[in-house]
Amino acid sequence: MSAIANTSKPPYYAVVFTSTRTEDDLGYDQAANRMVELAEDQPGFLGIESAREDGSHRLGITVSYWSDLDAIKQWKANVEHVQAQRMGREAWYQSFKVRICKVEREYGM
Fold it and tell me: Would you say residue 82 has pLDDT above 60?
């Protein structure tokens, strides 16, 4: 995974997942890596970017990019992803928020 996702020409969609982690690992890193592998195989997946700070609250932000809202809906319903969502609620996250955004324009170097 490169540091900055190479997305297609807008418009497309971004799912912003912001979370604070619990202190217990309970298989989190392995599951997170698996979710990236699964997402990469999903129709409509364009890329992903992720960062997590060190420290007690362990704030993390992951942004995944998708071609359309239907692709996001299909990803949310993926069986392994549903299991990971359950583990997140039960063990991995103190708190989280999901935001879905339409990207109208992008630029950079």
Answer: yes
